[in-house]
């Protein structure tokens, strides 16, 4: 199965590749791996994110049913991301907030919106065994 050298592949539409680079590289700190006329590939927290140039982007940002992001095992990594979002004034759809207070599934979450209305959720569970 997957080992530490494998990467999950995520592909999303992008209306403008320059905006995608600005958000993912200069906003979130992802590394740009490759860029072509029709797509750009990023190292997105150790996984592969590809933004494909497309006219078929969402008119508005909606969390469900489709979003992607990172479930941080360590609280300090989530805290660092929230500080980055605040410092760089990235567009927030929801949060930071606590979900499922009083249950084993309690976690902190923040949802962001990229320039093409793709929704990204970042979270951290109190019990890291529940991140899957």
TrEMBL record:
Residue ranges annotated for the VOC domain, each copy included: 6-125
Domain of life: Bacteria
InterPro entries, per database record: Glyas_Bleomycin-R_OHBP_Dase, Glyas_Fos-R_dOase_dom, VOC_core
PANTHER family: PTHR39434, VOC DOMAIN-CONTAINING PROTEIN
Name of this chain's protein: Glyoxalase
